[in-house]
Here is the input.
Amino acid sequence: MKILLVGDVVGRPGREAVKKIIPALRRNECIDFVIANAENIAGGSGLTSETADELLNSQIDVLTSGDHIWKKKEIYERLEKDSRILRPANYPEECPGRGAAVLKSSSGKKVAVVNVIGRVFMNHIDACPFKTAAKEIEKISKDTRIILVDMHAEATSEKIALGRFLDGRVSAVFGTHTHVQTADEKILPRGSAYITDLGMTGPQDSVIGRKADAIIEHFLKCMPIRFEMAENDVELQGAIVEIDESTGKAVSIKRVREKIAEYQ
Ligand SMILES: [Fe+2]
Ligand SMILES: [Fe+2]
Here is the structure.
């Protein structure tokens, strides 16, 4: 089976790219299941129920997230009751929501998705993403062999190490959060697909989704500056992983980069 992984969807331009590209991509590539990181879908930071529904109604099966998940409080209640929207599993258990779910693909196969967040160069997180992911995978693997892990993290070393740690236990480990696609997609020695970062689904004429001028001013003056969403050069970025359903191991991984016509 083929699974499409979509890198951090940013704001309205990112949501438009999803709507314009995913249905055709799903058809043309015979995609069975789609995972998208949605931590930036509402105004570039956080998500709301409405924006989550926009993606879930555009042929995305499950939304993962990261550090921006807590930006908009209105999503908290939804996190408690909708297993299609995940927050990193290694946040304290008192936090709303869950970090793993088993869902059905379009061909009726059980697909497990686990979301964890890194600790290097990130805000303080107590629980270890490695141990948390291993624990979640152990629980889930009784149910299905098709398991995908979103490692939302800044440091390439931490992401690569998690990929190697989980190699052979999952179908794929993919990185999100940096908004810059890496060219290191591969099948690891024990059969898990891996990529350090899927990239960003949003305006590429930007500094990771925001208009460049304000970000440059912020770096020059070291003052808080209001960042505005960028709008131009909108792309969907991610990867397609092909999985052997009988073993849960990956057969192939290829990067995806697709531009949409001028964004209005
Ligand atoms: Fe992000
Ligand atoms: Fe993030």
